[in-house]
Each structure stands twice: as structure tokens, then as C-alpha cells.
Amino acid sequence: xxxxxxxxxxxxIGTGKKITLECSQTMGHDKMYWYQQDPGMELHLIHYxxxxxxxxxxDLSSESTVSRIRTEHFPLTLExxxxxxxxxxxxxxxxxxxxxxxxxxxxLTVV
Amino acid sequence: AQKxxxxxxxISVVEKEDVTLDCVYETRDTTYYLFWYKQPxxxxxxxLIRRNSFDEQNEISGRYSWNFQKSTSxxxxxxxxxxxxxxxxxxxxxxxxxDKVIFGPGTSLSVIP
Lengths: 111, 113
Hints:
The structure holds two protein chains of two kinds. Chain A has strands at residues 4-7, 10-13, 19-25, 31-37, 44-51, 54-57, 65-66, 76-78, 87-94, 100-102, 106-110. In chain A, a hairpin with a 5-residue loop joins strand 9 and strand 10. The model of chain A has no long low-confidence stretch (mean pLDDT 93). Chain A has no helices and eleven strands. By secondary structure, chain B is mainly β. Helices cover 0% and strands 53% of the residues of chain B. In chain B, the strands form three sheets. In chain B, strands 2, 5, 6, 10, 11 and 12 form a six-stranded mixed sheet that branches. A four-stranded antiparallel sheet of chain B has the order 3-9-8-7, with no helix packed on it. The relative contact order of chain B is 0.35. The model of chain B has no long low-confidence stretch (mean pLDDT 93). The chains are: A mainly beta, B mainly beta. The interface between A and B is medium-sized, with 26 and 25 residues.
């Protein structure tokens, strides 16, 4: 089982601020994903990575950006937060075609 | 196109009843994986089962069982003798050769004591 760490768990921030959501894993999985989810609702894939220096946009358009400089880190950045960005952000890892393992998520509130 | 459909948005059952959660998927890939996840009120996603496209054997794990039928593109999940702790949102997901994992909209299960 993968160990995936997301920080912060909860974040309340003002409109216009720049934020970075951290995601790190210790299992060396090649694939990493960011999903956006409103509570109890559908998971929407916003970014994914096949490996170092590879990033792709997901099915849901997002103003956020990601980077994958190291295998274990996949941070997500919002340059200017808006209330419409309020949501839960879930990071996941996956090795090959196996199941994805999820972090505990970051609940973001933009006021 | 890759798609996962969970037609049941919400289900309520009385404790000890059996309940089946439906999942229908679409893919043109011949190799793919199907998954079920549970999301309790605490919010974390818990992996339950994986099934690959070449393995149509049904699986039973305690009170949980899964029925995979390629002919109908379905991967249904049954909970036998439901318990209050089974209350959660359950997601069916599809992993394809494009390396994405696509989730269905989820089914919210409430087990009433």
C-alpha cells in the first residue's frame, strides 16, 4: 500500500492569494493524479503525470498548474485563488495499471 | 470514449438487508481494469477491489461480492446483511491503457439501523 501525504489538510485563504497544495509519496509509484471533488460528489481528474517531467491536463479544465520534478512530489499551484476554487483536492498514486491509492485530501476554502 | 455510469444516486436500506450497487462502463480498450472505492463521511477514499478485463470470475470477500459481466459491461457490487458502518459513497472506476482512472458519479448508501 502506498503512503501518500497531502498538506495542508485544511486551508482557508483569501481571494487573490497564491497557494500550493503539496502531495508526496514514499512508494516510488510512477503515476500521480490530482482530482477535484465537492463533498460526496463526483471526482474530476484535473491533472496527471506518468513520471518525472511529464504532466498532462485531465478531463476537467482547471486554472491550477502542476509540476513533477521528482518522483515523490506532485505539487498543485493556484496563482490567484478565487471562491470558485473552493473544493476538496485529492492526490493519488498508481503503479502500472494497478489500483490508485489516495491521500487524505486538502479541503480548500477561498473567502 | 471512456465512461463510468452509476445510475443509482442514493440508496437507503434497513440494516441487515442486502443491497446491490450498479456500475456500467464504456471503453474501446481490450485491456482495462475496474475498481470499487468506498468514501465514508470522513472523506478518504478506500480501495475495495480490482478486476482486470480478462478475469470474469466473481469475487466474494466477507459480506462483499462483485459480479463482472463483460457482455453487459457491468461490474456490480453487492453488500450482504448491510451494517450501519457500510454507509458511505461508493465509486466505481475504470483504468484504461491511457493510464487515466475515470470515476463514476458515485452512489450514496445509507444503512438505517
